[in-house]
Write a structure and sequence with these properties.
By secondary structure, the protein is of the alpha/beta class. It has two domains: 39 residues, no CATH class; 196 residues, Rossmann fold (3-Layer(aba) Sandwich), CATH 3.40.50. It is built from nine helices and nine strands. Strand 4, helix 2 and strand 5 form a beta-alpha-beta unit. Helix 2 packs antiparallel against helix 4 and helix 7 runs parallel beside helix 8. It is globular and about 65 Å long.
Length: 280
């Protein structure tokens, strides 16, 4: 079995993530009259529903409730496996440099391996569902075992002619998604499909998106009335609260997933609230 290429990724600050140490340590708010609640300062990407208004008034800064367990312990990888979303096949061996689908698989493998190394439990979701969408991989299985199972799942998944964004969204419903991080690797999308994915942000703790500029690959599908430019898709996703970037095939044929991942750590995504009133 040939497993996908895995690129090394630089650690980034994931929206809403906290580690339980340093500046993220819980603060007692006994002075606010709720000794059984711990809070921490608001960070970009935090769920606005977790803002603790009494503590925020006491500390004179936005504070959010801190859960007993880190919400980011689970991460769902969404891999867009719609055949219509990727470049056509070209002659010769398919690689991330010749196929947008191969790049998408490699990106998912790289991100999944990276998140596993950071302590996340990771699952892979595609349109097909089944075991691909229900299996969680984590370090309790052993590092090699967890990564190996994820890479095997990615090695066997393929594009599907009848795959749809709607099916992917239906597979993501439930507490396992709403309490965790979603990272999506997406191909070409119509306006309706972009809107559908954008709405998914409301059901998650945080969402990161890589949108492939599929037309830049050999065999890239011709511009049609349906798909929107990847830059426009990213703009819509960001407006909905996603941290998202465009991934393109450069003139040198070198595609660095690590660069795109680093960009996700640099962008602001949705506009940051400037006051407590803005979050109400």
């Amino acid at each position: 079995m040939v497993t996908p290429r895995v690129d090394s990724l630089t650690p980034i600050r994931i929206p809403g993530e906290w580690s339980g140490s340093g500046e993220s340590r819980p603060r007692s708010i006994a002075a606010a009259g709720e000794e059984d609640v711990t809070v921490r300062p608001y960070q970009r990407g935090d769920d606005r529903r977790r803002v603790h208004w009494r503590a925020s008034a006491h500390h004179a800064e936005l504070m959010v409730r801190r859960e007993e367990q880190p919400w980011q312990s689970r991460a769902t990888l969404v891999l867009d496996n719609r055949a219509s979303a990727h470049s056509g096949r070209v002659q010769g061996r398919q690689t991330p440099e010749t196929s947008s689908w191969e790049l998408a698989v490699s990106a998912a493998a790289s991100i999944g391996s990276h998140l596993l190394s950071r302590g996340y439990s990771v699952r892979l979701v595609t349109d097909e569902g089944g075991s691909t969408s229900t299996a969680w991989h984590d370090r309790s299985e052993g590092w090699g075992s967890a990564e190996g199972q994820l890479l095997q799942a990615l090695a066997t998944v393929d594009v599907a002619e009848r795959a749809s964004i709607g099916t992917i969204r239906s597979l993501l419903r439930g507490a396992a998604t709403s309490s965790g991080l979603v990272v999506a690797v997406l191909g070409a999308m119509t306006s309706d499909e972009v809107t559908s994915m954008a709405r998914l942000r409301h059901d998650t703790a945080a969402a990161l998106g890589l949108v492939l500029d599929v037309g830049a690959w050999p065999g890239g599908r011709p511009v049609r009335a349906g798909p929107v430019p990847p830059e426009a898709a990213v703009t819509t996703l960001r407006a909905a609260g996603w941290n998202s970037v465009v991934v393109a095939r450069g003139e040198t044929d070198v595609i660095d997933v690590g660069t795109a991942w680093a960009q996700l750590g640099e962008i602001a995504g949705v506009a940051e609230p400037t006051s407590m009133a803005a979050l109400r």
